[in-house]
Design brief:
The protein is built from ten helices and eleven strands. With about 300 residues, it is α/β, with parallel strands linked by helices.
């Protein structure tokens, strides 16, 4: 039994589609089919029930998934540990980032690359739920996001900073001098908001429902940077975490009142899995960034 066989088996068990699995593995479907048959022959069991339309795990296949996951994870941990022993002369750190963290990530990654020029950084921007799912499938090493209401027991979260949902306005806006705002204060303004499903929008929607208020939403975007550009160029406002504009001196975020608008920035990793030295260094740099900007 080879690790390659187990990795191929896990990909098919995840997709339940030989064609899709072969595409994701960058191999031909015939190579994948032959590898699975070899594994079935070695184990003396059938792992998949398959016909021209559907693929299902057999009882033996379902039993193997957990053992295969543990074996592959242990092998990956071993490789990560050996890479770390080379003092980060090589290796890859796979980071999942929500769009709210994009500005912070850009500065921290720049410093990381300066310190460790031979370590490759692979960054994925998605919604928090999708990133946590990838983390649990061992497709990411780290996820940077706000703390969700519910999270898998497999995930360990390091709290980085306390944050607040805020209304983002130009520094010369009539609301800029306010220490805080209520939803009623902003009900008559036009907004460009984060797309539904993003963390800042999720928090905002809960607040709007609780207070029975509707905002005049003109634009929705799934990336923070264009939202900030719209605030600069138009009369529209937006709602993001206050930390999202920590490094933009021409804009400010006025906190929305209420305990429900609080947010906690987190560094998520998997429990029971070896954490790469590169991940620890990224965490250290994040903490330095947060301390510098007094977040």
């Amino acid at each position: 039994m080879e690790l390659r066989q187990l990795r191929f088996f896990l990909k098919v068990s995840e997709t339940l589609n030989f064609s899709e699995a072969s595409k994701q593995l960058y191999i031909t479907q015939s190579t994948l089919t032959q590898t699975i048959k070899q594994l079935e022959t070695e184990l003396g069991v059938v792992l998949f029930d398959r016909n021209s339309h559907e693929v299902h795990l057999t009882e033996a296949g379902k039993e193997l998934v957990d053992y295969a996951n543990r074996t592959v994870t242990a092998a990956d941990d071993c490789m990560a540990r050996m890479t770390d022993l080379t003092q980060m002369k090589c290796g890859t750190l796979r980071i999942g980032v929500t769009h709210s963290f994009s500005l912070m990530t850009a500065e921290v990654v720049t410093e990381f690359c300066r310190l460790y020029p031979n370590t490759h950084i692979d960054i994925t921007y998605l919604r928090m739920e999708e990133l946590i799912d990838k983390l649990c499938r061992h497709e990411l090493d780290v996820v940077l996001s706000y703390k969700p209401t519910h999270i898998s027991k497999k995930v360990e979260s390091v709290e980085l900073f306390k944050d607040q949902l805020g209304v983002v306005v130009p520094q010369d806006h009539e609301l800029a001098s306010r220490p805080s705002l209520t939803l009623a204060d902003i009900a008559n303004y036009s907004f460009a908001l984060p797309a539904k499903g993003l963390q800042a929008r999720n928090v905002l929607e809960r607040l709007l429902v609780a207070h029975n208020i509707t905002l005049n939403t003109r634009v929705e975007l799934n990336i923070a940077t264009p939202l900030l550009r719209l605030v600069r160029k138009s009369k529209m406002l937006t709602v993001l975490s206050c930390s999202a504009v920590a490094t933009t001196p021409d804009l400010c975020a006025i906190p929305l009142e209420g305990e429900e608008s609080s947010m906690v920035g987190c560094f998520h990793t998997l429990k029971g899995v070896y954490r790469k030295y590169a991940a620890d260094e990224m965490l250290r740099l994040l903490k330095e960034y947060i301390a510098f900007y007094k977040m």
